[in-house]
Design goal:
The protein is mainly α. It contains 8 helices and no strands. Helices cover 63% and strands 0% of the residues. The chain is elongated, with a radius of gyration of 21 Å.
Length: 175
C-alpha cells in the first residue's frame, strides 16, 4: 500500500519565486476582511441612523430588544448592565461596530479590530441570539467564528498594518 504524500509542495523562502497556490494563500483572508468590515460598518451606521433604535423603550428600540431577550440570554447580568442605560449601550455598540469595521476594512490594528468584532459577536451570541434553537439559526456564533482567523492572522495583505510593517523594515535596514 502506498501513501499519497506530496513532495512537490513547500513554503518558499525569502527571495524565491512563489507559485500560484502560494500567492492565492496570501490573499485568502481578504474576502473575509472585506465582508466583515463592510458588514460591521453598515451595522453601526444602521443603528446610528435608525431613530427608533436609539431609544430606551418602544418598538424596535435597543431597550425593548434588551428587555425581550433578558430572560432567555445566557448572561442575564450583561443584559441588566445594558438596561441601566440602554441608549448609551446602543451608542457604544454602534460606535464599536464602526471602529471594528473601519479597522478591519483598511487593515489598521487589524488583530485588535478583529478581537473587538469577536467580542461584540460573542456578547450578542450570549444575549440576543442565545435562545435560537437549533443554535445554528443565530448568526452571531457564525460571525464569532469568522472573526477568529483574523484575530490569529491579522491583515497581512492590502492593509495599513502591512504598509507600516514594510516601512519599519526599510527604516531598520531589514528585508
Amino acid at each position: 500500500m502506498t501513501h499519497g504524500m506530496r513532495t512537490d509542495t513547500y513554503t518558499p523562502h525569502l527571495g524565491e519565486e512563489r507559485g500560484w497556490r502560494d500567492n492565492l494563500g496570501r490573499y485568502a483572508l481578504l474576502p473575509l476582511r472585506v465582508f466583515l468590515g463592510v458588514t460591521f460598518i453598515y451595522a453601526g451606521l444602521d443603528k446610528l441612523t435608525n431613530s427608533a433604535f436609539m431609544k430606551s423603550s418602544g418598538a424596535g428600540s435597543i431597550g425593548e430588544t434588551m428587555r425581550s431577550v433578558r430572560d432567555s440570554s445566557a448572561i442575564p447580568a450583561l443584559v441588566d448592565l445594558a438596561l441601566k442605560n440602554p441608549v448609551g449601550f446602543g451608542y457604544a455598540i454602534a460606535f464599536g461596530e464602526l471602529a471594528v469595521g473601519i479597522g478591519t476594512l483598511i487593515g489598521l490594528l487589524a488583530r485588535l479590530a478583529a478581537l473587538g468584532g469577536a467580542l461584540i459577536s460573542f456578547s450578542l451570541w450570549m444575549t440576543v441570539s442565545w435562545a435560537n434553537d437549533p443554535y445554528y439559526y443565530g448568526n452571531d456564533l457564525a460571525y464569532l467564528m469568522a472573526w477568529l482567523p483574523l484575530v490569529l492572522a491579522g491583515a497581512p495583505m492590502f492593509s495599513l498594518d502591512a504598509a507600516l510593517r514594510t516601512r519599519r523594515r526599510r527604516r531598520a535596514g531589514g528585508y
